[in-house]
Known about the structure:
Elements: E1 6-12, H1 19-27, E2 34-41, H2 45-51, E3 59-64, H3 69-79, E4 84-87, E5 93-94, H4 98-108, E6 112-122, H5 139-145, E7 158-160, H6 161-166, H7 177-186, E8 192-204, H8 216-234, H9 238-246, H10 248-266
Parallel strand pairs: 1-2, 1-4, 2-3, 6-8
Antiparallel strand pairs: 4-7, 5-8, 6-7
Helix pairs in contact: 8-9
Amino acid sequence: MPSPRVSVLMAVNRLDGFLDDAINSILAQSFRDFEFIIVANNCDDNLFEYLHKFIDSRIRLFRISLGGLANALNFGICQAKGIYIARMDADDISLENRLQAQYDFMEKNPSVVLVGCDSVLIDERGELLAQKFKFYGDNASIRKNLPIRNTILHPAIMAKTSLLLQMGGYKYGHMSEDHELFIRISRNKENLFHNLNEILFCYRRHSGQITDISRARKNFCEISGFLFTEFLLTFNFKYIFGMCVVSPLGRRFLNLSRRMKLLFLRC
């Protein structure tokens, strides 16, 4: 059998009520030439048994005990047979034409090494939220703002497998392992990024996420570590500003400004 063109990579370690929607959204893709690598990392027997209910020849299920999302994703990258890797998280939803749109773009633009897309935010019930991720489309705007914030939605990316292997995958296993990876990729000016100006992904907000505001101090310590490292390498003061943005005080200010904006729009 020929190798698939795309390897979809998802790591999971618990059942939280969203897994069915996430997996089925991939199996229902209009693009069919893919394998679906599911890495069950540090899971219990109930979850692993539950994953076996999804019957599809494209699914490749692995059970490991490495711990940490970065380790699980690196394991999956090493298993991938596709020339592109598409990320997926176990609580989100990919719209039906996501893989096709990203694959077509990558094939037509070989200089682009990683492509994302626009998205909507949904809550635990799948209902749309008013909040949106700030969208950056072209390579220049993505790179310009990358020191300050993560300009690419990680679970919605498609990237060249060769690139991820060349970069050594994800590092550290800290918070925002994706942001750190994107910054390392950006060190080479020939590596081009792009976000499709099309809503192809539903990103779910819920209390079980590690990005929850209650973990802000720990997240700040981990994120500021690689941002400060990059500052020392580049002396780009945007990385210092980025550290201020992800600080607990900075996050509270941003959340407050979003609430004020929503109140103003309702008035």
